[in-house]
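Quick one:
INPUT:
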């Protein structure tokens, strides 16, 4: 106590240069400090006593809060987890006012590789989230080298048309309005019906014949609006079947990313069996295993095995087994059956110890080397909390691939080894989605929609 008092004296001597400053003597100041310290001590003691006395209630309240939060995000307000393009794979660029410019320059300088396949393969591509397109709603999206207007008629049907009005070129997706099943241009109020034909013009008795806007074949599946893109102008070469499970399973949220890579690179990841144990082994629970490999046994790690098989049509099948292992103990066995449907759609059925989850992935080319990738989660009601959790967990696994994609280039003739035979098979299979009039990569780069 004496030494404490001595310390207080020393401090006061240092900062109070005379015995009298602003009317206070050193003794006054000392008494004031001591009384404040006493008060603080008494207050802290009382709070700690209260916490101790009511600890079980407090623990219960915290547990209840988290339980309610999980239930709310699982059943009422599903998680939408989005990351900015600059957040993944650019950690080596320090924060600062020039960061975006440096990333943009790195992207411009990135080599695209030789013999890069056409950037927009033929197939179905997701252009909007079904639940975000309300009746009478209008959206605008630039994808597949197109400017598109997406709208939902008052009849509840989602439709997609080219963005530009054939009259004077106003963009229907920006300020267009919906009337019945038609989209109305904001500039002179021309209306276009469901097949894109102009159906009325204000002040004109008959709509002009032969005037129409291109409309896109559209379907809604897995919580998204898809359009059929085909360089030859053909009708859809396949239909995407509805999933009977989704009649009773609920939507549990989604993660969304923008990736700088050729579209083919994303599904190729499924056939690239060798990368699984290189990229996806480290535990999601802690990054410590990455820094200190000796800790891997204690923290645990993900163990994978996979097969990839092409089918004789527009689909390919992958089977994947996942185990989370700590030492020799297997804490999380998950079987995944993956169906790749065309170039831009994948369905992953996860059989987990707590129930099934469907992950529906869409890949949509926003530009020749820029993809929007979304994973939507669905599950039965009883498994909703786990499916909601997987929005972030699956996203964290996927981000490890994005780190690679965002700075890699396409290699048309890789140095294949034995373990890469499925990559070669994948490329042969994927080639079916390019056709005679597929726009070449370098030509597509002339488009102002490029990265
Ligand atoms: S520009 Fe669309 S109606 Fe005139
Ligand atoms: Fe991967």
């Amino acid at each position: 106590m004496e030494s404490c008092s001595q310390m207080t004296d020393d401090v006061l001597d240092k900062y109070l240069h005379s015995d009298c400053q602003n009317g206070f003597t050193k003794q006054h100041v000392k008494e004031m400090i001591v009384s404040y310290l006493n008060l603080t001590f008494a207050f802290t003691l009382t709070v700690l006593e209260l916490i101790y006395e009511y600890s079980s209630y407090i623990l219960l309240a915290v547990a209840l809060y988290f339980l309610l939060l999980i239930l709310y995000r699982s059943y009422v307000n599903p998680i939408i987890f989005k990351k900015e393009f600059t957040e993944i794979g650019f950690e080596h660029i320090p924060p600062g006012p020039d960061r975006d410019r440096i990333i943009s320059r790195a992207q411009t300088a990135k080599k695209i590789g030789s013999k890069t396949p056409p950037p927009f393969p033929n197939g179905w591509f997701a252009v909007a989230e079904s639940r975000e397109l309300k009746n009478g709603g209008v959206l605008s999206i630039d994808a597949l080298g197109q400017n598109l207007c997406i709208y939902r008629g008052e009849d509840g049907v989602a439709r997609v048309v080219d963005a530009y009005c054939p009259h004077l070129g106003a963009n229907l997706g920006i300020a267009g309005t919906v009337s019945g099943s038609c989209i109305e241009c904001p500039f002179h109020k021309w209306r276009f019906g469901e097949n894109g034909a102009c159906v009325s013009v204000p002040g004109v008795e008959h709509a002009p014949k032969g005037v129409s806007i291109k409309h896109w074949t559209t379907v809604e599946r897995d919580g998204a609006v898809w359009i059929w893109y085909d360089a030859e102008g053909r009708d859809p070469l396949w239909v995407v079947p509805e999933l009977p499970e989704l009649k009773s399973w609920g939507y549990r949220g989604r993660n969304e990313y923008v990736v700088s890579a050729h579209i083919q690179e994303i599904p190729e990841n499924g056939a690239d069996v060798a990368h699984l144990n290189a990229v996806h082994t480290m535990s999601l629970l802690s990054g410590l295993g990455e820094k200190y490999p000796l800790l891997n046994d204690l923290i645990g790690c993900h163990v994978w095995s996979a097969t990839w098989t092409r089918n004789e049509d527009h689909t390919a099948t992958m089977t994947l087994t996942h185990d989370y292992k700590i030492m020799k103990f297997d804490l999380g066995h998950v079987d995944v059956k993956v169906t790749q449907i065309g170039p831009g759609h994948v369905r992953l059925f996860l059989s987990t110890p707590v129930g099934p989850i469907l992950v529906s992935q869409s890949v949509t080319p926003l530009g020749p080397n820029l993809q929007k990738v979304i994973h939507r989660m669905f599950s039965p009601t009883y498994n909703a909390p786990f499916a909601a959790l997987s929005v972030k967990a699956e996203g964290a696994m996927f981000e490890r691939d994005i780190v690679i994609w965002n700075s890699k280039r396409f290699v048309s003739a890789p140095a294949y080894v034995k373990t890469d035979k499925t990559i070669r098979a994948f490329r042969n299979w994927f080639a079916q989605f390019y056709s005679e009039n597929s726009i070449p990569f370098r030509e597509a780069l002339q488009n102002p929609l490029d990265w």
